[in-house]
Every structure is written in structure tokens, then in C-alpha cells.
Amino acid sequence: MFWISIVELQLQPAHQSRYFDAFRFEKEGKIYEKLGVHWYRKLLVFIGWEKLNRKNNPVEKSASALFQLERATRASEFGHLVIAVLVLLVSVVVSFKYSVLEASWLILLNLLFNVYPIMVQRYNRPRLRRAIQRFKLLAL
């Protein structure tokens, strides 16, 4: 993830793909709630990740801060997606060369460190976009 962060800082890609827009089934977040996104968020709070993240990136109540946070969700999701695909490919190779049991730890860690973070970002982004729209309406 470190090298993805370096590339992100240097190139600052826009991440404007339609992939980052919420699909119809995602907009209310019910699918992610059923898949345990709240459990994972509680886990992040328990291990101190949220505290560390908020210390480095404090939340401000402004449209520009929300816009930056929304962009950060796209950047984070992209980084986790790249790593998840790479780990998935390695898992497939290990599964065929050795066994699925040998690849099970890769699959489990990929779920915990990449798939769930992607789900958290996809859960949060529609909520952030609604908040940004409210700020825009209030500004009119």
C-alpha cells in the first residue's frame, strides 16, 4: 500500500471513473451493512486506526473539507483495489500450485486489509456526497 500512496501523492490522479459512483444497490448502504461494514468500522475504532487517522486528517465542517474527504475515499479505495487484485492473483496461483488451504491465509488477509476497506469507502462515499449536496444547497 505504501507504493500506491507514493504514486497517489506524486501524481494525484483524479479518480473520475464511473466506477467510483455508487451503483443503485449501494446508495443506501444496506448491502454493506449486511456484509458487516459496521463490525469492521468498530474494529478500526477498537484497534485505534480511526483515532490515528483523525489525528492526521481532522474532520472539519465545511464543503471543501467534505470534498477533500470524498476524494480521499476514492484514492483509498483505488489503492486497496489495486492491492486486492494483486493479492487475489497471488492467491489463485498459490491455490493451483499448492492448495486452497495454503492460500487461505492470503484470502483472509486480503478480505480484512483490502476488501473490507473498499466496502467502508463505498459505504461512506454516497453519504459524503449527500452532505456535500446539502452544503451546496445551503450556499445558494
UniProtKB/TrEMBL annotation:
Pathway: Carotenoid biosynthesis; staphyloxanthin biosynthesis; staphyloxanthin from farnesyl diphosphate: step 5/5. It is a single-pass membrane protein. This is Glycosyl-4,4'-diaponeurosporenoate acyltransferase. The chain crosses the membrane at residues 78-97, 103-120. One of its GO terms (molecular function) is acyltransferase activity. The keyword Signal applies. Catalyzes the acylation of glycosyl-4,4'-diaponeurosporenoate, i.e. the esterification of glucose at the C6'' position with the carboxyl group of the C(15) fatty acid 12-methyltetradecanoic acid, to yield staphyloxanthin. This is the last step in the biosynthesis of this orange pigment, present in most staphylococci strains. One of its GO terms (cellular component) is plasma membrane. InterPro entries: CrtO. Its main location: membrane. It comes from Adhaeribacter swui. It comes from the Bacteria. Belongs to the acyltransferase CrtO family. It is found in: Cell membrane. Keywords: Acyltransferase, Cell membrane, Membrane, Signal, Transferase, Transmembrane, Transmembrane helix.
